[in-house]
């Protein structure tokens, strides 16, 4: 009944039907890669994709809308990414995972 009143939408692209549609799940399943921040950092910075499209949608859905179902999916993606980086020896000893704010005011 709830689905009739407020249909479920994909957090990545807003398509009707699922928390994350198959297309967005595929887009989000990419391997992490190292990026240059343009600022001197003490540790390497890795991302799973650009802050646009499905990636932006899932981040905003988790952080701004507190979507727990999306957080579960994102947690699994993050776990896979960290496992991959650890297996490659990319994560330095004592590394800390830091969430980035979505707005300057939240920083």
TrEMBL record:
It comes from the Bacteria. This is Phosphoribosyltransferase.
């Amino acid at each position: 009944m709830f689905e009739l009143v407020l249909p479920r939408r994909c957090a990545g692209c807003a398509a009707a039907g699922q928390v994350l549609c198959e297309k967005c799940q595929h887009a989000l399943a990419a391997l992490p890669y190292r990026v240059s921040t343009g600022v001197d950092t003490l540790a390497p910075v890795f991302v799973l994709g650009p802050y646009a499209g499905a990636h932006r949608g899932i981040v905003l859905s988790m952080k701004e809308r507190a979507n727990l179902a999306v957080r579960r999916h994102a947690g699994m993606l993050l776990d896979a990414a960290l496992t991959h980086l650890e297996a490659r020896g990319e994560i330095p000893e004592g590394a800390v995972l830091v969430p980035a704010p979505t707005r300057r005011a939240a920083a």
